[in-house]
Amino acid sequence: GENVEQHPSTLSVQEGDSAVIKCTYSDSASNYFPWYKQELGKGPQLIIDIRSNVGEKKDQRIAVTLNKTAKHFSLHITETQPEDSAVYFCAASQWGSNYQLIWGAGTKLIIKP
Amino acid sequence: ETGVTQTPRHLVMGMTNKKSLKCEQHLGHNAMYWYKQSAKKPLELMFVYNFKEQTENNSVPSRFSPECPNSSHLFLHLHTLQPEDSALYLCASSQDYAGVGEQYFGPGTRLTVT
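The joint structure predicted for all components is written out below.
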């Protein structure tokens, strides 16, 4: 079955710098890759997602890139701000069928002032 | 209330107790989920209900018993739990269950089994 590896488990960056979180997946049939952000005391919230028919997607300061050949995808956050501090989860699944989301273990992002 | 709500937010129970977790979604969605979240581990999907019918049960021990009386409410009945069941239990909903599409999560119930 599908397996998703996420790195690093903790990432500390200076405010204003960029942060990159990477995930690899094992099932080449996976074609949907969302990223969720979980703030303290809250449930995860979708922040961006990408399907395998595109290589990159941007939304203001966040972007996701996908390399289908290498089976990895990454979350990029530019100009980090204190409110970016949270745990970020990647996941993988297959669009249009009853396949479960398979989740990574999460990355705790710490923004240093 | 908007979104997905969960009660109680915190629960401490002994191994011989019986308790229930409640989830309610105000989004008009058709699919609801229970997840277990343990520190530094991937979210573990426990149960999925689509149009009130259970569609997934990921080999969850029988001491966890879900109930979905209608598409807005989801319960997780707990009995004779083990200390390793201590975790954050998250409820989520989505428009339909297609394995994908945005899932909306509640804040979770922090469960401690003593």
